Amino acid sequence: MRKFTVNQLSAFDGIKNSAYVGYQGKVYDVSTIFKNGEHAGMKAGKDLSEDFAKGPHKEDIFSNFPVVGELTFEKSLSEKVFAGTSLQTDLLLRLALGIVFFAHGAQKLLGWFGGYGWSGTMGYLTQTVHLAPPIAGVVILLEFFTGIALILGLLTRPAALGIAIVMLGAAVTVHLPNGFFLDKGGVEYVFVLFLVALFLLINGAGAVSIDRLIRTRYQRR
Fold first, then answer.
1. Which of 76, 172, 183, 201 is surrounded by the most beta carbons within 10 Å?
2. Nearest-5° angle of CA 148, CA 154, CA 158?
3. CB within 8 A of 75, min separation 6: which ones?
4. Taking a C-beta distance cutoff of 8 angstroms, is the pair 61, 43 a contact?
5. What digits encode the pLDDT tens for the residues 180-196?
């Protein structure tokens, strides 16, 4: 029986090839129900041993599909060097961005962590940065609440869009005239935050999120 490494299994994603999934050490051909490589929030080309319990089906569903091989977790030297990972490491980016914006938002809105609070920040944004008061208020609220949303993984794409817009505005109104580098007050830092927000806007919250729970419940209906 053919042996599949995790990297080899990923080639059978149901888009360019047949749809294969791994489960409990075996590899199944699920092409009949994984249309465009996805079914019930799960994607083909992956080991579903851990994720399967979160889906709508029971284990005996695999008896309906042919076994095409065995899944091995041994990697060749080239796979160890060049292979990526199927882990949901985007959680780390989401938490990093969420914590940063929650902290800065709490400074601006509540005066926490040595911040100036609502009135002090409004004064700075309206008098120094020359933002209109409604826009300044929206910026403060966005930083605080989008930070919480990202930490929870709730409404991740709208939150990421809000952050991307705020960072783009900060770059244009404050940092761009100072050049690129952070030590000169340039756009370096907001540029990185903008790109992380753009990543989350495109990719969404990932598996460990409230968004995923909502999506899975909706798909079961």
1. 201
2. 90
3. 5, 6, 7, 83
4. no
5. 999 999 999 999 999 99
